[in-house]
Write a structure and sequence with these properties.
Low-confidence stretches: none
Order of helices and strands: HHHHHHHHEHEHEHHEHHEHHEHE
Helix content: 40-55%
Family: Belongs to the damage-control phosphatase family. Sugar phosphate phosphatase III subfamily.
Radius of gyration: 22 Å
Structural class: alpha/beta
Mean pLDDT: 93
Keywords: Hydrolase, Manganese, Metal-binding, Methyltransferase, Nickel, S-adenosyl-L-methionine, Transferase
Bound molecules: 6-O-phosphono-beta-D-fructofuranose, magnesium ion
EC number: 2.1.1.-, 3.1.3.-
Strand order of the largest sheet: 1-7-6-5-2-3-4
Number of helices: 17
Cofactor: Mn(2+); Ni(2+)
Distance between the termini: 21 Å
Number of strands: 7
Catalytic activity: beta-D-fructose 6-phosphate = dihydroxyacetone + D-glyceraldehyde 3-phosphate; L-glutamyl-[protein] + S-adenosyl-L-methionine = [protein]-L-glutamate 5-O-methyl ester + S-adenosyl-L-homocysteine; beta-D-fructose 1-phosphate + H2O = D-fructose + phosphate
Shape: globular
């Protein structure tokens, strides 16, 4: 049977979920309110009286939201009348029906995944109800700052990439496999740099992303990188016999800043090496979970890389820009990614997006939130098969690249979870451990 959803006050207090809602979410909200207030003059310069009024109204809505959260008030319907508003309100109704009455769905008595996603949607509602500051990205400062504070690591990575590109033609398959593995792991550990777990505090990349890889290897609990490699090379082989079906890769992105650079470097290597013909990137439709990538972040980081006063970094940026212009790379967003839904609901609730992913040869899911949605954020036993936890979500061969920052992990060996719990009680939430976890419906 399917285990229940992770809730906030279920097992024992303080759970990571409980501490998230009790401490980190209010901290994130306070930072948002502070950011808007600090930009009061900017809004009045840009929009005059209207800007000042919008700032005031938005802050009062966000203060009300923080109070509702901290006093465990019932979750309320959205009122901003946007395309996904009804979906959110229906989802609330569904939970209210399941829990029996209107007021039972409250901040601390609801599934963790739901209320955490709901908070970011409510932040957006507060802005969307107050044009002209509707499109203001309350997390932009943190995202740009974390990028600038990762500059040294960005340069090291682009220098490494350019050195590979220089000798690409001469590389043997084994050498190609070595570089593939390294850059896959760099993208994996890039996921440590999310600003939600740090409640907006600096969480940029300080150490060299390449040199540290071997010391991090023992912390990869599930490593399916070999199957990812054979999936890519398998698809390519068909291409080489003249059929034009070489691999299409989709990357469901997570955080902006350094993590996005690691994803772009990996995608660049796969295209330059001929392992992949095209890459489709999937981002969020609005600012989400503090640091998740939006279209503005995606374009900004490529521009910043192009404009870098470091020759090899700007060379990489220029190539990325040309990939976008030529259509080798494309950026997409879909409202489904900013809903609280488990991915096993995608085929029914977002059939267009499911069909899009079915056109891919491999879908990479970056990060912890995507993993929680892949597995339904439920109390699965650690030894349950990844396929079981996916509950029918199998649009294409897929792989999660995730550092553990939430209380769900499946596909472990018998005893592996218990052993980790005995050594480190917070092994699932410290982002010290990671997984490269693959599943292919084709393999079944
Ligand atoms: O950016 P990521 O890897 O999805 O991490 C998001 C973080 O936010 C959380 O929701 C906790 O607030 C966890 O999922 C994770 O710790
Ligand atoms: Mg994130």
């Amino acid at each position: 049977s399917v285990p229940t959803l992770l809730s906030i006050k279920f097992e024992f207090e303080p759970s990571f979920a409980y501490l998230t809602v009790k401490d980190r979410l209010p901290t994130i909200l306070t930072r948002v309110i502070d950011t808007i207030h600090r930009n009061k003059n900017k809004f009045s310069e840009e929009y005059g009286e209207e800007g000042i009024e919008a700032e005031k109204q938005t802050i009062s809505l966000l203060s009300k939201l923080r109070n509702e959260l901290q006093t465990d008030k019932p979750v309320v319907t959205l009122t901003d009348g946007l395309p996904d508003t009804e979906t959110w309100n229906k989802y609330l109704e569904r939970h209210q029906r399941m829990q029996g009455d209107q007021d039972s769905v409250s901040w601390f008595k609801s599934p963790w995944l739901y209320v955490e996603c709901y908070m970011y949607r409510r932040i957006q509602e507060a802005l969307w109800l107050n044009p002209p500051i509707s499109d203001y990205d309350v997390f932009n400062e943190g995202k740009t700052q974390s990028f600038f504070e990762s500059q040294q690591a960005v340069r090291i990575l682009c220098t490494y990439l350019e050195s590979i590109n220089k000798e690409m033609e001469k590389l043997s398959k084994n050498q190609l496999f070595e570089y593939f593995n390294k850059l896959l792991q760099v993208s994996l550990w890039g996921n440590k740099c999310d600003l939600s777990i740090s409640a907006g505090q600096d969480n940029s990349q300080k150490i060299s992303p390449i040199d540290g890889l071997s010391s991090l290897q023992p912390f990869i609990l599930v490593d399916d990188s070999n199957v990812v490699w054979s999936t890519l090379t398998g698809s390519q082989r068909q291409g080489r016999s003249g059929e034009t079906t070489v691999c299409r890769l989709d990357i469901v992105l997570d955080n902006a800043g350094f993590e996005l650079v690691t994803d772009l470097v990996f995608a660049d290597f796969l295209v330059s090496s001929g392992l992949v013909r095209e890459v489709h990137f999937h981002g969020k439709s609005f600012p989400w979970f503090v640091s998740d990538v939006t279209v503005n972040d995606f374009q900004w980081i490529i521009q910043q890389t192009m404009a870098a006063n470091h020759r090899l970094t700007s060379k990489s940026g220029a190539r990325w820009h040309s990939y976008l212009k030529e259509g080798v790379w494309s950026y997409h967003d879909h409202p489904f990614w900013t809903l609280p839904h488990e991915f096993c609901d995608m085929a029914a609730d977002a059939p267009d997006l499911y069909a899009t992913l079915q056109g891919s040869d491999l879908v990479l899911f970056k990060g912890d939130l995507n993993y929680r949605k892949l597995t339904g954020d439920r109390y699965w036993d650690h030894t349950v098969a990844f396929r079981t936890a996916l509950r029918g979500f199998e649009p294409a061969p897929l792989c999660s690249l995730r550092t553990l920052k939430g209380n769900v992990q499946v596909g472990l060996r018998p005893g592996q979870g218990e052993e980790l719990s005995s050594q480190e009680p917070d092994w699932m939430t410290s982002s010290k451990y990671a997984v490269i976890q693959f599943y292919s419906p084709k393999a079944e």
